[in-house]
Amino acid sequence: MKHVVIGLVLSFAIAVTGCRRAQSAAASSAAEEKTYPLKGEIVSVDQARHVLVVTHEDIPGLMPGMTMEFSVSAGDAANAKAGQRIRAQVIPSKTGNFRLEQIWPDDETSVSAVEAGAKALRQDTMIRGRGAYREVGENMPDFTLYDQNGRVVQAGRFRGKMVMMNFIFTRCPVANMCPAATQKMMATQSLARKAGIKDVEFVSITLDPAYDTPGVLKGYAAERGIDTSNFSFLTGPENAIKDLLAQFGVLEEFDGPLLKHTLATLLISPEGKIIHRADGTVWEPQDFVAKMQR
Ligand SMILES: [Cu+2]
């Protein structure tokens, strides 16, 4: 255990220079804009214009409840369906246009499943205490998160399949950290397919759930042309992500606006056991494929 801790600290020190979440001009100007929490139901979706018609509850300080149009990102538009309940942040513009960001599913079934999952994970992490970190040979922790489509995904869904898992965030601006990790996951997915390996799933969990909503992850995958038939991007409540990172041994630390983190890439057996782990950026897609073939 001691060796593991030292190993992690070392790789953290090496990787610390890596990934920094710099605030772009757009992000910082967005941060200065006043936002208002919204709860409502999607009435219709205009995919071409990226516009949702939403019936929303009263928004104190902004407007009473009504049915109106909001512009959204491409990823949020792609996920939206009439009849969905959502919560989001409204950003009014001076031109009288209203934008929705931070869109999350808000139907009772999804919310209670994800909350129950986060609570169970919290308890499990507390009970494990200093032994929260799961080494190779242990089972992966249970989790309930949202995928990039806004669907609830539980760890159990991957039983019977191998899972290659890593941790990234979409705003990571450092080319050799998260962007490179995503490229290598894609390369592994393609190599595994060419090698005829079936029953393998690729999973990237966000380190930055405050920004990475299902719609943001959807946009991230779409912009990169990622084949999401067996590659999902997961997000969820901040406390659940924090507990998962502790259990998977991924270190993360905010230094002002900068998010510094380590990288870990894991292979999980069809029975849910962690069978291989690569820390940092130095691993080869073909090594993971070779391990999948065993
Ligand atoms: Cu990164």
From TrEMBL:
Coiled coil (residue ranges): none
Which Pfam families does this one have?
Answer: CusF_Ec, SCO1-SenC
Per its UniProt record, what Gene3D superfamilies does this chain match? Copper binding periplasmic protein CusF, Glutaredoxin
The molecular function GO annotations come to: metal ion binding
The yes or no answer to whether the keyword Transport is present is no
Q: List the disulfide bonds.
A: C172-C178
Which residue intervals define the domain Thioredoxin in the entry?
134-294
Could you tell me the keywords of this UniProt record?
Copper, Disulfide bond, Metal-binding
Residues given in the record as Cu cation binding sites: C172, C178, H261
The record's listing under PROSITE patterns reads: PROKAR_LIPOPROTEIN, THIOREDOXIN_2
Family assignment from sequence similarity:
Belongs to the SCO1/2 family.
According to UniProt, the name of this protein is SCO family protein
